Amino acid sequence: NDHYREQPIATSPAPRLGAIVVHNDPTPEIELWKLANGEASIHTVRFYLPRKKGEIFTGSSFHTMSEEYGLKRALLDLRDIGVDAICLCFTSISIFMGHSFDDEFINYASEITGVKHITTSTRAMLSELEKSGLNSPTMLVPPWYSPETVKAFSAFLARHNIFISSHVCYKMPPRWSSHPQQDIFDEGGAWEITPLSIIDLFNTYVQDNSSFDSVLMPGSGFPSLSAKKPLESLLRKPFLSSNEATWKWFMSIKPRN
Description:
Helices cover 43% and strands 15% of the residues. The protein has 11 helices and 8 strands. A 4-stranded parallel beta sheet has the order 2-1-3-4, with helices on both faces. It has a 4-stranded parallel beta sheet with strand order 6-5-7-8, with helices on both faces. Helix 7 crosses helix 11.
């Protein structure tokens, strides 16, 4: 009883963030809960992305995402839960389809949920880069990113005067060599990524850090939060992931004030 009396008592409900993720992506909710650290609750809903084995995803229309892949149902679930803010944590769709997709998503989501604060992780990431004055990051590339995805990210950021200075590509252990690159995530590759392997990657491949001002992890499915502090200490440069950008956006809007 004495223990509980020593704990601070909340005077108002904690803010609630609704995160929409791909059906088989566990990473955003893991990292968002860590970042929340008791300050907020995270409510994750999913949509289904029917990617065939070997297929390279290069975008989809909003109508297809909403009506066929379950995005509409996910939004209605968040409406019924009663979240304060919503973020679509799927950067690939935004960079392939452009701002028109994000605009359509935000307008539609606002209309059917009544939630005032809505964004995408891509917009949150872009906002954080611009706010921090970072315009020449090195990109930490997930092992399942196709060349098409890397090129699309670089082109998307360049349109906002953010230029990728270099790419550091994460390498899976040799036993994954027989797996098609684009299938690695769907086959559970994200569970094998460790903070130490990320640090070792930069120790091995980055000898000169003068050419970039930050490290960017654009994919929500790549677990990198636990590597942030040691990597920043090693490189003396800021590290930003799309999941952290989502959290910073949520904290910046102060939904309960």
